[in-house]
Design goal:
Strand order of the largest sheet: 4-3-8-7-9
Helix content: 25-40%
Order of helices and strands: EEHEHEEEHEHEHEHHH
Radius of gyration: 22 Å
Number of strands: 9
Length: 267
């Protein structure tokens, strides 16, 4: 039994099938970091990931995207993927057996070591997504992201597959697709060759535990406002000190939680 709809991303394409096969051999360019997305809405990918630098890198084969339609693993004539929750309550829950089949399909040809290939469920109850998490994921071979819908996923499949739950923030979305694209954008941009200027990721917000300093460019004067003199002084040492001081001040003012963690780390 096969599924005919296919999605093309970058130089390679995938057409989802229930027949056993080595997905990585068919879709992954040698050395390309790969994201596998299990979703009920594969048509929304690559979305914003297909634009700008991540889109260019996708076309160049610097990373690869495989979308896996959860619906084809559904049960019965109508490919049901969800059912009512035990214990009652509103909404529906994604079935453990259906999700498990999709996970098994996605895992073919991938490393078993979760450090090399994380499996993540986008969940509002998960640990907060951070720059450090993006950095760790970018250093893996790739990852699998499970996009939830409805009230969530049967807990048993999360436990059985030891799936990591990660949250984009303290709010609830209708599904995990938007969160997946945001997290992938933050991760892929850290891969070699994606941004072009690798140094740009070293000074931005969160990379050193601080918010990023303010930026200025031409014109030198705009609406009566000038540029801080230190930035036009040509003294790189003074510029670095000014930027660090600005980062510290902004972090203390806007994110006292980050500042407290930085102080604790330094202590």
């Amino acid at each position: 039994m096969t599924q005919t709809p296919r999605k093309s991303h970058g130089r390679k394409s995938i057409s989802a099938s229930l027949q056993p096969r080595d997905l990585m051999a068919e879709t992954k360019l040698k050395g390309a970091w790969t994201a596998k997305i299990i979703t009920l809405f594969p048509e929304v990918f690559p979305g914003v990931l297909g634009a700008s630098l991540t889109g260019k890198a996708l076309k160049q084969g610097l990373w690869a995207l495989d979308t896996i339609d959860l619906r084809i693993f559904g049960e019965g004539k109508h490919r049901n993927v969800d059912d009512t929750p035990y214990g009652g309550g509103a909404g529906m829950v994604l079935r453990a057996d259906v999700v498990a089949k999709a996970l098994d399909f996605a895992s073919r040809g991938t490393p078993q070591d979760r450090a090399k290939w994380p499996i993540v469920y986008l969940s509002p109850r998960g640990a907060p997504f951070t720059q450090a998490k993006a950095r760790a994921w970018s250093e893996a071979d790739g990852m699998t992201l499970l996009c939830g819908r409805f009230e969530g996923v049967d807990q048993r499949v999360l436990d059985a597959y030891d799936i990591e739950e990660v949250s984009l923030g303290d709010f609830v979305l209708t599904g995990g697709e938007i969160a997946a694209q945001a997290m992938l954008d933050a991760t892929i941009r850290l891969r070699d060759g994606v941004l072009g200027n690798e140094a740009s990721t070293e000074e931005e917000s969160y990379s050193n535990g601080l918010l990023e300093h303010p930026h200025y460019t031409r014109p030198a004067e705009w609406r009566g406002m000038g540029v801080p003199e230190v930035l036009t002084s040509g003294d790189h040492g003074k510029v670095a000190k000014w930027r660090n001081a600005q980062s510290e001040a902004l972090t203390q003012d806007r994110r006292p939680d980050l500042w407290a963690r930085k102080e604790d780390y330094e202590d």
